[in-house]
Specification:
globular, about 45% helix, alpha/beta
Length: about 325
C-alpha cells in the first residue's frame, strides 16, 4: 500500500543521522557545520536535540531554525535525501514538501540580495527532488512567514506563481513583531488565488485563539486546524461548505505538548466527519518524531488510540489524494 503526505517540511524531513553525516564531512569547511560540530561534539548529542522533550511549539521550532541554517549550505544535498527517504522507507508515492526559500539563503547578505537568490534556491530543491530516480510524485509549496514584511511574502508568493513545479503557498512560522496584519494576509491570499495558486495556512495548531476566519474564503486547506474542531466547532460548517481540508499531523501534537494523549484527537475526527470537513493525515516533521513519525506510524498511532478504525485507513489516504495540490494521476484507489 502507498500513501500521500500533504504536509511535510523540508526542515523536518531529514533524519538527524544524515544531517550529522553532512556535518562530519564538511564541519571544518563551512561556518554553520563547524559551529554545530563544536556545539554538539558528536552524533549522540546532536540526535538528543531532536528527540528531547519540547516545552511547547516555540521550543519545537528551534530545531527547525537549526536545520534551516544547515540546509542553506547545500540545499540539493538535503532535498535529494528527503524525497528519496520518503519514497523508499515510507511507501509515499505522492509528497508535497514545503519550505521557505528565503531561510535557505546566506543570512549575512542584505535582504534584496537574498530575494534575488530565491528562484535559484527553489530550482535547486526541485531539481534535487527529480534526481532521486524513485517512483514518487513530488510537488512543492513555498512557505511565507508570519514574521516577514509584506514585500518579502509577496516576493515568495509570486515566485511560486512563476515556477510550474510549485503548486501552492503556505503561511508558516511564529508571529513576530513587524509581521503582517490579518487583513494584509487575507488580501495576499486572495491575490495568490487570483493567479491560480493553491493555498494552505498553518492555523489553530496549539493556540485555541489562532483562528482567522477572514482567511477561510481564500484557503484550500488548513495546516493542522485541530483547535477549530476542539474549541470553535461553529466554524466547521463553513469549512465543509468551502471544502477546506485539515492537514492533521498527530505526533506533532504530542511532541509540542499541545495534547497529552492522542485520544484527545477523537473529537476532532468525529466532529469533522459529522460536519463534512475533509481530513488528511500527514507527518509534518518526521525527523523530530522518531520511528513513529513516518507516515505509516501516523495512521498506526491513531488506530491504537481508537481515534480512527483500521478500516478507515483507505478512506483517509484517499482524502489525501483528493485534496492534493499536484498531479496524483494513477495514485490512490
Amino acid at each position: 500500500m502507498n500513501f500521500p503526505d500533504l504536509h511535510r517540511h523540508l526542515g523536518g524531513a531529514t533524519h538527524p543521522r544524515i544531517l550529522w553525516g553532512y556535518i562530519e564531512k564538511h564541519g571544518r569547511e563551512t561556518d554553520v557545520a563547524c559551529r554545530l560540530r563544536e556545539r554538539f561534539g558528536g552524533y549522540d548529542g546532536f540526535a538528543r536535540e531532536f528527540s528531547r522533550p519540547f516545552a511547547d511549539l516555540a521550543d519545537y521550532l528551534t530545531v527547525h531554525h537549526l536545520v534551516e541554517s544547515l540546509q542553506a549550505e547545500d540545499v540539493p544535498y538535503f532535498a535529494t535525501r528527503a524525497v528519496r527517504g520518503a519514497a523508499v522507507f515510507e511507501s509515499i508515492d505522492y509528497l508535497e514538501i514545503r519550505f521557505n526559500p528565503y531561510k535557505r539563503t546566506p543570512s549575512g547578505l542584505p535582504q534584496l540580495e537574498r530575494i534575488k537568490l530565491l528562484p535559484e534556491i527553489t530550482a535547486q530543491v526541485i531539481r534535487a527532488g527529480r534526481a532521486t530516480g524513485f517512483p514518487i510524485n513530488t510537488a512543492y509549496i513555498l512557505c511565507m512567514d508570519r514574521g516577514f514584511p509584506l514585500l518579502l511574502n509577496r516576493a515568495i508568493m509570486y515566485l511560486a506563481h512563476r515556477m510550474p513545479e510549485v503548486v501552492g503557498v503556505d503561511l508558516a512560522g511564529p508571529y513576530q513583531d513587524g509581521g503582517m496584519t490579518w487583513e494584509e494576509w487575507a488580501r495576499l491570499f486572495a491575490e495568490a488565488k487570483s493567479v491560480g495558486l493553491k493555498t494552505t495556512a498553518h492555523m489553530a495548531e496549539s493556540d485555541p485563539d489562532d483562528v482567522h476566519p477572514e482567511l477561510f474564503p481564500h484557503l484550500d486547506r488548513i495546516g493542522h486546524g485541530i483547535q477549530i474542531a476542539l474549541n470553535h466547532p461553529h466554524h466547521l460548517p463553513e469549512l465543509a461548505e468551502r471544502r477546506i481540508c485539515l492537514e492533521v499531523c498527530p505526533t506533532t501534537y504530542l511532541r509540542t505538548n499541545t495534547l497529552q494523549d492522542l485520544s484527545e484527537l477523537a473529537p476532532v475526527f468525529a466532529r469533522c466527519e459529522d460536519a463534512g470537513v475533509p481530513v488528511s493525515i500527514a507527518t509534518d516533521n518526521p525527523a523530530l518524531h522518531g520511528d513513529s513519525g513516518r507516515i505509516v506510524g501516523q495512521y498506526e498511532v491513531l488506530v491504537r488510540a481508537d481515534v480512527i478504525h483500521f478500516n478507515d485507513i483507505l478512506r483517509y489516504t484517499q482524502t489525501g489524494y483528493e485534496h492534493a495540490f499536484g498531479d496524483v494521476r494513477g495514485k490512490g484507489n
